[in-house]
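$ fold --in a.seq
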Amino acid sequence: MEIHEAERVLIYEHAESEYPDECCGVLLGIKEDSLVCKIVPLDNTDEYGRRNIHYTINPLDIYKLECEAADEGLEILGFYHSHADYPAIPSAEDTRYMIPGCSYVIVSVDKKRCVDMRIYEKEAVYDELDI
């Protein structure tokens, strides 16, 4: 997946502005091109006072965004979020909730400054079925 510099800057700005909380948002584009055309910052709606180590996205926001994106000829390619004072690697929780086929951008923010950005995908794993 490719993310142009302008979109990277938007992610960095969002991550730095939310520090020390985790920011989150959606990556929109065209799957066959593997190019992110639009970044949509969303609110971290975590209700348990853990926004510095956890993010939650309202599913209705994703649904609305998916409908709007389709009108523009775009689709959800994945999601992004930040880690405050932690490397840009998926936590156990991140890995558990990754959706196969989606890309996940993680930004490491150290003392209010972005220091690293990495992209991850979870491979689909299917159990064998006895028929």
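$ fold --in b.seq
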Amino acid sequence: MAGLLSPSVMCADLLHLYDEIEKLDSLGVEYLHIDFMDNKFVPNITFDTNMVKCFKKPMKNIKRDIHIMAFKPEQFFDAMEIGEGDMVSVHYEACNDAHTVLEDIKNRGALPCIAISPDTPVDTVKAFLDEVYAVLLMTVYPGFAGQPMVEGSMDRLSELRRIIDESGKDVKIEVDGHVSWDHCGEMRERGADIFVAGSSSVYGKDYPLDEAVERFYSLVE
């Protein structure tokens, strides 16, 4: 299966979001990556829960890929109207009981995913492979767009792919952080399935959005 694309909406043209989401939808993009931050787990704020909910309105085929960078993420699920078709990532480091939180996501009809930050050992995910649709591997520290990739991230990606393959589980790998034109092909080769593309690729200044999306798919097929 070819790689799947999840453009990061925090890097989009915020004055024309509705039109931009419709365009991504028309281009056949699978997911829209929506970052939610609480200014506690990470020192930043992006969209509030009402905005995360409102992203549903212009969507026809594209699905929400909600990345919750917040302590006790379950407290936000109702306000976001998490449900069928959503892919929802919560951070291992931010949950009191990640197993219970992932079960809550699944019970709402969404796809549960566990996210790990660069300093968290990759083998931490072994405890969750029976419960998740995907592992979100952060290749930058969560909280801000435009960061350089953390050293060693490619090796962590390879290790994660090995762990999943040896488990025999059908679990996807999503990569988030400096998923650039230069890096996305290697990320694909090392086992990434879903790509959070932002300012270093799809939302860069080199190509119009439609051309950027087409080029990205050609690099991760």
